[in-house]
Structure to design on (249 residues):
């Protein structure tokens, strides 16, 4: 009896298991797609919220910034004009910025900065060479411009110094350096008429027998300015201009 009941119970359990499997089997029919959705995977329908975002106008303004380039300013350097012959004015007190009595090397450097290196330099020698006073003498030339240095003159004594200048040579009219003028604007090759018009010069006819050429003289401080002429008529010309004291070249 118990065996029959056990067998019947097993049959009932098997039947229940088979019935449950039938309910777990997938259905052959596909459920209908919800409204508003596409059954195709290729088409995507935007939601109302996304469509609203697309319709919002773009309020972002494009800001354009203009940068103006300022050209760089090139600094300018003012270069002074080089010293010229016009700097070397033949005065009663010296030559340009070089006063009588000044130290020789300083004067030579100053004139050389304008006219270049000297064309002749005697170096220091005994005054007998030039028939001058003192213990030493030196002549430095730039063409027809001659400067004399010594240790005995009306400008100073007991030390070497700038004593005098001579501008021009009798037989070398027109040689370099050209263009040097006196404080009165006089230069070599000017006529005697120009000399008398610009200065209160006194003329001397000289002495031909003694080979003393005609000359001029006008008084200034601290020393007079003198010179040599081709003659004393208005058409004659100035050959040499001298300034200073002591010896002359």
């Amino acid at each position: 009896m118990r065996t029959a009941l056990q067998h019947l119970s097993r049959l009932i359990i098997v039947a229940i298991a088979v019935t449950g499997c039938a309910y777990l089997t997938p259905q052959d029919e596909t459920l209908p797609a919800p409204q508003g959705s596409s059954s195709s995977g290729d088409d995507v329908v935007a939601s109302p919220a996304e469509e609203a975002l697309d319709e919002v106008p773009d309020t972002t303004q494009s800001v354009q910034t203009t940068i103006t380039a300022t050209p760089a300013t090139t600094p300018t350097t003012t270069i002074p004009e080089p010293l010229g012959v016009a700097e070397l004015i033949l005065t009663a007190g010296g030559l340009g910025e070089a006063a009588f009595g000044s130290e020789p090397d300083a004067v030579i450097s100053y004139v050389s900065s304008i006219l270049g290196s000297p064309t002749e330099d005697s170096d220091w020698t005994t005054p007998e060479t030039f028939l001058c006073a003192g213990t030493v003498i030196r002549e430095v030339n730039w063409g027809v411009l001659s400067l004399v240095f010594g240790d005995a003159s009306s400008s100073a004594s007991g030390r070497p110094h700038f004593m005098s200048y001579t501008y021009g040579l009798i037989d070398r009219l027109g040689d370099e350096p050209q263009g040097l003028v006196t404080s009165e604007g006089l230069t070599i090759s000017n006529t005697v008429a120009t000399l008398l018009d610009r200065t209160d010069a006194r003329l001397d006819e000289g002495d031909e027998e003694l080979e003393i050429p005609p000359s001029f003289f006008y008084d200034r401080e601290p020393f007079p300015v003198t010179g040599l002429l081709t003659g004393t008529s208005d058409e004659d010309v100035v050959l040499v201009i001298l300034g200073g004291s002591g010896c002359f070249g």
